[in-house]
Amino acid sequence: MWKIGDVNIDGPVVLGPMSGYTSSSYRDFMKPFGVGLSVTEMTSAVGILNSGSRTDEYLEFDRNYPTALQLFGHAAEDIAGAARIAIDRNSNIDMIDVNMGCPVHKIQRSGAGCVLMKDPVLCGKIVKDTKKATGLPVTAKIRLGNDRNHMNFMEVIRELEAAEVDAVTIHARTKDQGYSGYPDYAIIQGLQDSLSVPLIVSGNIYTLDDAIAAMASTNATGVMVARGGVGDPFLVTQIDEYFRSGRKLESPTVSQQIEWCKQLTDMLIQEKGADAAIRKLRSIAPKFVSGCHRCREYRLRLATGTVSRESLFAILDEIDSKMGSDRINSDGRPSQRFRAMDSTFFMQPPEWMV
């Protein structure tokens, strides 16, 4: 158990925000697997201020577990004002998370996301103003910096701490990397030890070993699971159990994965309607069998042949009848292979810690 402000977080796993994925039903689906804190899809502060219909959907959720609303914007007054409106409309919001690390060009163009890190003082002002406007805990998600020659994350963090930020999430890539290449956890080796607030680490957490290595390298309090958990919800359970008991749980069977896929399907349909849910499931459903070596043909069919709940379930049932007892092989998923795995990077602390 740990805290962000006055909010108790039960377990190390934070469900990361993913546009188009982490809707209310997806967060509800993932919570029982061991999520300690859920973060909403990235939401436009200006959209809330203008009461855009699409943005309004992001604020309509019930929950009985810790949930952070993630906002993006370029001005402190916009983010603080939007946060105030949001919590007035939905008392289920436990904290505000400010996105200061999104590398997507459309977000960058508006002066939001990772662009904010170019002005560390502004980053601190956003946190300070949002805390004052809401009275809630405020967290920030950042990256290492703009590129390998401009990694100013420590300068940003110090401004955030001065503004009494309640936790910091750091994605261990630069803005220029986007989501390509591998995160560099060696750069933030031992970072938690120099912070006054909880550190959450993010970037390429696809396996339990990825989470173990990232946490061991940084001594972080929490680990964010985002893309790695799409189609692999049991990854959250494996991470949660390991950091509670030290046990490494066996991977689930294909039958278990199929049952979870069906459960998510029905939850998405209830939330979004059949057409919108099925369109989204064409990208999600194949991931539930991505660790099944004999399922390549079926992954293609799930992506191209899913036109209804019935067609999706028919393909899933066929997979279950043929490969249901197979176990998902986590080695088939992307691996971090970040440099912190090399013990030589633990010998000397980085200069900023000396």
Provide the β-strand percentage band: 5-15%
Describe the biggest sheet?
Answer: 8 strands, parallel, barrel
Task: Report the span from N to C terminus.
Answer: 30 Å
Q: What is the CATH architecture term of the largest domain?
A: Alpha-Beta Barrel
Strand order of the largest sheet: 3-4-6-7-8-9-10-11
Radius of gyration: 20 Å
Helix and strand pattern:
EEEHEEHHEHEHHEHEEHEHHHHH
* Helical content (DSSP H or I, runs of 4+): 25-40%
Overall CATH class of the largest domain? Alpha Beta
Question: Which superfamily, in CATH terms, is the homologous superfamily of the largest domain?
Answer: Aldolase class I
What does this entry show, briefly?
This protein is an alpha/beta fold and 354 residues long.
What structural keywords apply?
disordered C terminus; 354 residues; single chain; globular; 39% helix; 8-stranded parallel β-barrel; 11 strands; alpha/beta; two-stranded antiparallel sheet; 2 domains; TIM Barrel
